[in-house]
Amino acid sequence: FHAPCSCSFFRFLFCHSKREPQRSPSLTWYYILFNYLQPSIKALFLTMPHATARVGDTIIAETDVWETVEGNIYFPPTAIKDNSILSKTNTVTRCPWKGEASYYSITVGAQTLQDAAWYYPQPYDAAKNIKDYIAFCMIHPFASLNFLNFVKRKSQGLGLDCLLTIFCALLLIDKSKVSVSVE
């Protein structure tokens, strides 16, 4: 499970232009690297890549205007395709600089993903740009059994295979359920 404040080391607040954005795939990696390399700087971009959140093949949110905070993509409430798939839960977490987060479960077809999205209904001033924006627990790109087996094979003979496999499993355990992409 990915708590909203688990990446406080990479804390950053990313502001963007309210102008109509254009898709810019070439900016995606620069955009991400800039945020991680310059965590204390607020940056202004006139264009933003397109962001999409999916559960399986079902698109649940899509937008060209979004915020990133601590590596999570926050979708505006208007980006949600069908609000009926979101149901509020009793789960609440607190961040020392963003405030109290409330959670949603996501139901797509017969599949329900418990606490798979969160939002800040009353954020602190430092995070007022994400008020009511929704972030999703994201799937780690390497969170697969194939990756763990690869690590295990590579570490055999070093006496570290068990330790490395456990370490990778702890890092990549199914802490996320929704695929979020930026194009």
Automatic annotation (TrEMBL):
All copies of the DUF427 domain together span 52-137
Query: Would you tell me the protein name for this molecule?
Result: DUF427 domain-containing protein
Q: What domain of life does the native source organism fall in?
A: Eukaryota
Q: Which InterPro entries match?
A: DUF427, DUF427_sf
